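Incident log, support desk, overnight shift.

02:14 A customer reports that sequence design results differ from what the structure should imply. Their input is reproduced verbatim below. On-call engineer (initials T.W.) acknowledged and began investigating.
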């Protein structure tokens, strides 16, 4: 009974990690799109070195 519970716990942990990694991939893709849009949207208002973000 103990090894079966250990295998089930390991499967649950790996499923959770896989789900978290998939969500992180989607977050990374969204951040990349926003970052690329920042280069497109920064048309030269206020000089050539204007930035669309504050930092």
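02:41 Re-run completed on a clean worker. Output:
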């Amino acid at each position: 009974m103990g090894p079966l519970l250990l295998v089930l716990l390991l499967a649950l942990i790996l499923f959770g990690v896989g789900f978290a990694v998939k969500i992180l991939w989607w977050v990374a893709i969204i951040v990349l799109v926003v970052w690329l849009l920042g280069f497109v949207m920064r048309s030269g208002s206020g000089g050539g070195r204007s930035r669309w973000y504050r930092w």
